[in-house]
Amino acid sequence: MSESARVDVPALTTHWDRIYTSKPAEECSWHEPAPLRALEAILDVAEWVDSPIVDVGGGESRLVDLLLELGYRNVSVVDISEQALQRARARLGEAEGLVDWLTADVGVPMASDEPPWPRAPFAVWHDRAVFHFLVDPAQQAAYLARLRASVGHGGHVVLATFDEHGPEQCSGLPVQRRSLEELSRVLSDDFELRAAARFTHLTPWGAAQPFVRCTWQRVG
Predict the structure, then answer these.
(1) Nearest-angstrom CA–CA distance, 32 and 156
(2) What per-residue string of b and e applies to 121-156 under the rule 16 or more CB within 10 Å gives b?
(3) I need a labelling partner for 143 at 20 to 30 A (CA). Which of 1, 104, 185, 213 fits?
(4) What Rg do the C-alpha atoms of the chain give, in angstroms?
């Protein structure tokens, strides 16, 4: 992809829709046949099968399949690309009706009259690889404001980004890489850090992408 690094919201939506309409899942760098690492991180903090969980930037990830197989029935999937969500819904068949599918750009500010997402407040906010695409401080502030508006007291945030040695771009867009220490400072005040880890994602063609991941709990 060769789109400009500085894109407006409609162009960004078009960018991701084009990727999801031009490539099968197995040719996308983020694809995992079974995202067990993300599932494990969620299961560590989602105590009940009725815990409201949101997968931010879930796209056509198979994480939702695994959650449904385990009996979770209070799941939302958010993505900027309607095409990605349509592909996930088609894959799930009749089970897609058990999930809330939300098309949204989490890098733009919430409108003053914008209602909360249907299943909020969430017990778990999971984001494997959206936050590192928000390279503008205003985008990051909008994301964190939405997160704070969406996660209830006692809820958890599981957030992963490329680490400081990861790629400088992904899918034709710049990313902000972070050390584990830098990521751990993203949330503070009313959130307490509960876990921090490094892991390596292997793309479908075998390239190693180093990530960092932190888990916080809302205490305020």
Answers:
(1) 23
(2) bbbbbbbbbbbbbbeeeebeebbbebbbebbeeebb
(3) 1
(4) 16
Contact 214, 159 (CB under 8 A): yes
In a domain, 1, yes or no: no
End-to-end CA distance of the chain: 42
Residue 145 covered by a domain = yes
Q: Name the nearest CA neighbour of 63 among 53, 49, 51.
A: 53
- For residues 133 and 166, the answer to whether their CB atoms sit within 8 Å is no
- pTM for this prediction: 0.92
| 220 residues of the chain, pLDDT tens digit each | 222 233 345 688 999 999 989 888 888 888 898 999 999 999 999 989 999 999 999 999 999 999 999 999 999 999 999 999 999 999 999 999 999 999 999 999 999 999 999 999 999 999 998 999 999 999 999 999 999 999 999 999 999 999 999 999 998 899 999 999 999 999 998 999 999 999 999 998 999 999 999 999 999 7
Q: From CA 198, how far away is CA 205, in angstroms rounded?
A: 21
Domain that holds residue 139: 9-218
Closest CA to 183 of 208, 157, 149: 157
Judge whether 3 lies within some domain.
no
Write out 17-81 in H/E/C secondary structure: HHHHHHCCHHHCCCCCCCCHHHHHHHHCCCCCCCCCEEEECCCCCCHHHHHHHCCCCCEEEEECC
Q: How many domains does the chain have?
A: 1
